[in-house]
Write a structure and sequence with these properties.
single chain, mainly beta, 5-stranded mixed β-sheet, elongated
Length: 293
């Protein structure tokens, strides 16, 4: 009856159960003014590592009764003692063409999250898997201010902010805490250091912000359609295009020069010695030791 009390081995409720409410809207409703709680308690005076603390199972009767499709489970991660209750939360689902649940995600007692990895260790967020698609995707559908992903880490050259590896673990790209980026190297010598092979025992000069290094021939290539210009610009706050190196295939013409009124062009040789100067007035002058025509 509605007023029955006492201890029961089993109970069968036809409709709904309300705890703290006389008008439950679902099969089970727990109501409280400030802190409604459902508690699963393992009645065990000695809880040790890997023992289950409780589970919520999602099941159905198709094709057989009590067929489990998913589980949320709490588990001890070490022996319990006074004020020491290490525990983890595990999430299981059942793959297609299978009758067994598989662990998909775990939150460890240290707060680390492993997806496809049951032991993320000290890595806070560890995603592991095998797929022909992207392992992770982030999409911001905002039409005007759709920012992507922000990573805040690293404070100096000894710390990596972001590392990209090949499938075999070979490091390909390093973003360092001091803002330097290395492609093919974990120790970039400039803001961007593209490293295909070691040029030998040498450090890049401190001035360039781009270093291209190879143990064979190397270079930088600009590619355009035949009727378009390939240009390198040299600028400053006073003139964004003070000088250029320009080539266009359709003209069969390479141009090197200044783009500022009164500017000259020099050719240096030896240890920075001026060999020729082309002045803004159209004159050509040579050094005092120049010979030949």
């Amino acid at each position: 009856s509605k007023t029955s009390s006492g201890s029961f081995g089993q109970a069968y409720i036809v409709d709904k159960v309300g705890i703290g409410t006389v008008a439950p809207n679902k099969q089970l409703e727990v109501a409280h003014a400030t802190d409604p709680v459902i508690r699963l308690n393992r009645v065990d005076s000695t809880i040790v590592d890997t023992e289950n603390l409780g589970s919520i199972q999602f099941s159905g009767d198709d094709p057989a009764t009590d067929t489990t499709g998913a589980i949320i489970q709490a588990r001890a991660e070490g022996a319990w003692a006074t004020n020491d209750y290490p525990s983890a939360l595990l999430f299981y689902t059942t793959p297609a063409s299978s009758g067994d649940v598989v662990e998909r995600m775990r939150i460890t007692n240290a707060g680390s999250v492993g997806i496809g990895n049951s032991a993320p260790s000290t890595t806070r967020f560890y995603v592991s898997g095998s797929t022909t698609n992207y392992l992770a995707q982030f999409q911001n559908a905002h039409q005007t201010d759709g920012h992507g992903v922000k990573i805040q880490a690293g404070d100096d050259s000894a710390v990596d902010t972001l590392v990209l590896n090949q499938a075999d673990g070979t490091r390909t790209v390093t973003f360092r805490g001091d803002g330097y980026v290395g492609i093919g190297t974990s120790g970039p010598d400039a803001l961007l250091h593209v490293h295909k092979g070691s040029a030998g025992t040498i450090d890049a000069d401190a001035i360039p912000q781009l270093v291209i290094e190879e143990d064979d021939n190397t270079g930088i290539q600009l590619l355009t359609p035949d009727d378009k210009h390939s240009v390198i610009y040299f600028g400053s706050p006073s003139d964004a295009t003070g000088a250029t190196i320009d080539y266009r295939h359709s003209d069969d013409l390479m141009r090197i020069g200044t783009a500022q009124a009164g500017a000259d062009l020099s050719i240096l040789t030896g240890n920075g010695v001026e060999l020729l100067k082309f002045t803004a007035e159209g004159q050509i002058s040579g050094s005092s030791t120049s010979t030949g025509s």
